Model the fold of this input.
Amino acid sequence: MKRVHRSGKVLSIAVVAVVAAGGSWALAATTSGAIHACANKKSGALRLAGKCSKKHERAVSWNITGPQGLRGATGAKGTNGTNGTNGTNGTNGTNGTNGATKVVVRQLFVSMPTAATFYSGTAQCNPGEVATGGGVNNNDAANTARMVFDNPGSGTSWIGGFMNGGAADSFNVYVICASP
Done:
């Protein structure tokens, strides 16, 4: 039992020593940012204290934080970061207008009864249709008529013109019409 009692005394002394050392630290560290201690003049041993009162000691102090050091060298470039997440899909656009769903060829027959005479004709699309192309065709087997023009009209027609040759002849004007 005595042994346990002695261990208790040793533990009590150790606790008192730790608390006393902590108190010395608190006493030695002041609000000025410096640590104050007493140095033994012979041995150089330090003792933390706010004030030195013994003849064989001299007061010493040092800053808690030293002056700022020089700027260090620039570090190496870091690795690339990971790719960000994909953004959200945009909204759907509006529907376009419908294209042509009906395409027809309309024609005009032009008779050329008199020789050496100019004849023209216009093949016309129906209302609501648009001309997308066209052409002319000479029906003369002898091919004596001469084509003068073959071109689009007002957007809904095709125009053709021939100069008749030496005999009666005819030609056709075609227009290609499209509608929705």
Notes: The CA atoms of residues 11 and 17 lie 10 Å apart.
